[in-house]
Amino acid sequence: MRILLVEDDAMIGKAVLDVLRTEHYAVDWVRDGSAADAALLAERYDLVLLDLGLPRADGLSVLRALRSRHDPVPVLVATARDAVGDRVAGLDAGADDYIVKPYDTDELLARVRALLRRSAARGDPLITHKGVELNPATREASVNGQPLSLTPREWALLEPMLQRPGVVFSKAQLEQKLYSWKDEVSSNAVEVYVHGLRKKLGADFIRTVRGLGYVVPRD
């Protein structure tokens, strides 16, 4: 799961970044409204954690622009503005939930999980191919009807490939599924997770296309 964190306070941003990454979310952190707009135009996110009091364009402007493009990404507004009118304005602008600073990190994570479950449930609940089944709403997986244990990063790598069998994903594309913009990525990270998936699904479930990347074959 990839999250965009929009927070201009360095101390709060670093703390939230660490908490989210501890839970194995890939997180991109930007510190002003203009950078948030640019990130949302350039990337697809599973959730946005959005502060309202931002430089170079406030959070409500970012939110309204996002919804004007009919982007359905869940948005959790996290701000020190605790007046009822502020909460109503955020929700009316298109926020899915609202949490007031200072907040407990356990509550923040619970709200993030709830929004991600709700978002997954709105789409096709099951992804199936060649006996492998992923349920994004419950984060459960199975192979030939038997439960399959996947690490968060194995899931992040397998899900897009299972959604588009026959499509070759480059190593760089798969790294983007696993890590945030500024993370240091080990040179063999993708190979390690592909190897783990092959041990669980069979050596030929994910094939290497020499010089191009990896593919889950259609047949």
Automatic annotation (TrEMBL):
Start and end residues of each Response regulatory domain: 2-116
Gene3D superfamilies given in the database record: 3.40.50.2300, 6.10.250.690, Winged helix-like DNA-binding domain superfamily/Winged helix DNA-binding domain
InterPro entries: CheY-like_superfamily, OmpR/PhoB-type_DNA-bd, Sig_transdc_resp-reg_receiver, WalR-like, WH-like_DNA-bd_sf
Domain OmpR/PhoB-type per the UniProt entry, residue ranges: 124-218
GO-annotated molecular function: phosphorelay response regulator activity; transcription cis-regulatory region binding
UniProtKB keywords: DNA-binding, Phosphoprotein, Transcription, Transcription regulation, Two-component regulatory system
GO cellular component: cytosol; protein-DNA complex
Residue numbers bearing the 4-aspartylphosphate modification: D51
An example Gene Ontology biological process: regulation of DNA-templated transcription
One Pfam family here: Trans_reg_C
Presence of the UniProt keyword Phosphoprotein in the record: yes
Name assigned to this protein: Response regulator transcription factor
